[in-house]
Description:
5 helices, disordered N terminus
Amino acid sequence: xxxxxxxxxxxxxxxxxxxxxxxxxxxxxxxxxxxxxxxxxxxxxxxxxxxxxxxxxxxxxxxxxxxxxxxxxxxxxxxxxxxxxxxxxxxxxxxxxxxxxxxxxxxxxxxxxxxxxxxxxxxxxxxxxxxxxxxxxxxxxxxxxxxxxxxxxxxxxxxx
Length: 160
C-alpha cells in the first residue's frame, strides 16, 4: 500500500485569516492566487508569522501586488539578506484574470482584499476577494444576525 505524496494529495494548511474583511466588506467574488516570496519568507509564512490586517491588493503595470502585508523575518535567517517585512509582493494570476479584476475594481466602491493565506501542495496561496465596503447599518445587521445565531445554537445545546 503506497501513501500519496503531500504534493499530490492537495493538503491545505491554513496560515492566516483576515476576519476583519468579512466585517468591513461585502465579499462578492473570490479567487486563489500564488504569492511570489523571497528566501526565508516562505518559512515565516509556514510558521504563521503573517498579518493581513492592513493588507490590500493593487493592479499596476499588468500585475497584481499584495500591499501592506506584514511577514515577520525568519528568526534563523541572516538579517542582512532578509527582505523588508512590508514590501509589495507580486500575486501570481493569469493576465485575463488580472484584467477582469482591474475592470471590476475600477467601479466605484470596489476594492481587492486578501481574505486568507494558506499552504497548498507546498506553495503559499492567498485567497483574495472583490469587496464592496459596508455601511454602518450593514455592520449592525451582520452583528445582530451573528448574535441571534449564537443564541439559537446555545438553546439547541441546552435541550440535548
